[in-house]
Design brief:
Layout lengths: L5 E7 L6 E8 L4 E4 L5 E14 L2 E6 L2 E5 L5 E5 L6 E7 L2 H11 L5 E3 L5 E3 L1 H16 L3 H19 L1 E3 L11 H11 L6 H8 L3 H12 L3 H18 L4 H8 L4 H12 L3 H9 L19
Antiparallel strand pairs: 1-2, 2-8, 3-7, 4-5, 4-6, 4-7, 4-8, 6-10, 9-11
Helix pairs in contact: 1-3, 2-3, 4-5, 5-6, 7-8, 7-10, 8-9
Protein name: AraC family transcriptional regulator
Pfam families: AraC_binding, HTH_18
InterPro entries: AraC-bd, AraC_XylS_family_regulators, Homeodomain-like_sf, HTH-like, HTH_AraC, RmlC-like_jellyroll
Length: 294
């Protein structure tokens, strides 16, 4: 049945680092393999989602929460298409959670949520869902910031732990050099030979070790960089056509197709919802079923 998915993705500039937020009711949409520079904190309220995070596979249902670290490749779809699933998600930057960890955990080191990514915790789920509702409805930046810090701070206090682990494989040379090249040249067509030269590897060796380190092909990773750049521009009010060119897509149609496949909403809808929070009269959407992504 077409048109059953109802998803809302937006960026709120009044929140730390322009936090991205999502509310969705999914039936037919499936998320392809992808990763984020931010943490993903997903809270489930109805139905069931089948997901894969790195080597972990699981099914999330109401009362469960899923915390995915930055850089972890993951995918998701409805466990039962006829039922679908409802959930909300926060995408907090690592620096924001690090500050919360300093306050809630003390000590030194990085922040980790352990090997158990999916947890059944109805009480914590309710805390996070209430905070998400405040972030969507409130027009008061202070109220929103307090709700966000309170809910994510409680999550860090309950499940966060200190770690002294080394840098992730994707940040180490030569993969780090390859990623830096992609970041610097995402706005134009890129050939694998250029990336391999920047990394000091042969083309075939680069493609093999890049996927091993990041979980994605070089092309898929570049597409993610372009999508992140597109979100940044759209949230600032840059038009879709100009955004497509600046982010490295062939044209506006190419941007729309890639954006919708990755996020479940169109670039225009993301821009409109994000910009609604840039004005004093923002947060105009009422609580209730997610709005259509068309």
């Amino acid at each position: 049945m077409p048109g059953r998915d109802r998803m809302r993705l937006w960026r709120d500039p009044s929140l730390p680092a322009g936090l991205d937020l999502l509310r969705a009711s999914c039936f037919d949409h499936s998320y392809p393999l992808h990763s984020h520079d931010e943490f993903v904190v997903a809270v489930f309220s109805r139905g069931a989602q089948r997901h894969r995070v790195a080597r972990h596979r699981g099914v999330a249902s109401a009362g469960m929460l899923l915390v995915i670290p930055p850089g972890e490749v993951h995918a998701g779809e409805a466990a039962e298409p006829d039922r679908g699933w409802d959930y909300c998600a926060f995408y907090p930057p690592p620096g924001f959670l690090a500050d919360l960890a300093d306050d809630r955990l003390g000590g030194a080191g990085g922040l980790d949520f352990g090997a158990q990514l999916l947890r059944h915790d109805a009480a914590m789920s309710r805390v996070l869902l209430r905070a998400h509702a405040v972030l969507e409805r409130s027009r008061d930046p202070l109220e929103k910031h307090c709700a966000l810090a309170g809910a994510l701070g409680a999550l860090v206090a309950r499940y966060g732990e200190r770690t002294r682990g080394g840098a992730p494989p994707s940040s180490r040379a030569p993969i780090g050099d390859a990623i830096a090249f992609l970041e610097a040249h995402h706005h134009r067509p890129v050939r694998v030979g250029e990336v391999a030269a920047a990394a000091g590897l042969s083309e075939f060796h680069l493609m093999r070790v890049f996927r091993a380190a990041t979980g994605l092909s070089v092309h898929h990773y570049l597409t993610q960089i372009r999508l992140r750049r597109a979100k940044d521009l759209l949230a600032r009010g840059v038009g879709a056509a100009e955004t497509a060119v600046a982010a490295g897509f062939f044209d506006q149609s190419h941007l729309i197709n890639r954006f919708r496949a990755a996020f479940g909403v169109t670039p225009g809808r993301f821009a409109a919802d994000s910009l609604s929070y840039s004005t004093p009269s923002g947060a105009r959407m009422q609580a209730g079923p997610p709005a259509s992504s068309t």
